[in-house]
């Protein structure tokens, strides 16, 4: 499945009758990624990798915010 189609599917789930479950499921995935990022950063990273992982952390934070906003607007 291509990405635009998948994103539309997620958006429909977040606007559907089982939106709370969909929100919890997708947020759990992003939360898990956040925990893994934190663990890697606590272990220490080479300077050149730190910037990439920090950018990933910021993107993940934004994804979680967008997820919540989409669920709120869709409902």
What report would you give on this structure?
This protein has 75 residues and is an all-alpha fold. It is built from 3 helices and no strands. Helix 1 (3-15) packs across helix 2 and helix 1 crosses helix 3. The longest helix is centred in the C-terminal third of the chain and has 28 residues, at 47-74. The relative contact order is 0.15. The model has no long low-confidence stretch (mean pLDDT 89).
**Strand count:** 0
Globally, the shape reads elongated
Radius of gyration, taken over Cα atoms and rounded to an integer in Å: 15 Å
Task: Name the helix and strand elements from N-terminus to C-terminus, one letter apiece.
Answer: HHH
In round numbers, the mean pLDDT is 89
| Number of contiguous helices | 3
Helix content: over 70%
Largest sheet: none
